[in-house]
Amino acid sequence: MVLLATLLVALLSALAMLITPLDAYEPPRTVVNDISSKMGDIMVQCSRKMFPNYHVDPDMDSFWDPNYKVQEVRLGCLAVCGMRWLQLTHSDGRINVANVRRFLTANDADPSTRWQLEQMFVTCHQNSGFEQRTCSAGLTALRCYRTTIEQYGWAPGSY
Hints:
The protein is mainly alpha-helical and about 160 residues long. It has helices spanning about 1-20, 30-50, 60, 75-85, 95-105, 110-130, 135-150. α2 (about 30-50) packs across α4 (about 75-85), α5 packs across α6 and α6 (about 110-130) runs antiparallel to α7. It starts with a helix and ends in a 7-residue tail after the last helix. This is Pheromone-binding protein-like. InterPro entries: PBP_GOBP_sf. Keywords: Signal. It comes from Papilio xuthus.
């Protein structure tokens, strides 16, 4: 019995060292803010290539403003470009779930937040027709992302 108790204590101690403490992760709102900022930076790069006459994009700056209506098709084009740039989609437009998971993990999402955001990406991607890689599908996906994140209460606010 003592041997069993000793083995159990050793096993639990080993597991405790392998599990990342929850305070090592960022709160969901911070994760979404970081992801949004990184995606926004990439979308700015895409905008410079695709729409050189736009120097400042007020649509991107207002994205998290709850009064802003996400309707500018140009944002959809930038979303398609940004997702591809970050390798969150395969070249044929399908979502790259492994890379989405890595992207979320790299932005300090805890396992629960990562799972919810991963499911959001997959669902919005599939429901938008994103595989077509059209600007309108990208816009539909963006609307879905924003709506879902707002429903979770994780919207970072207007920039």
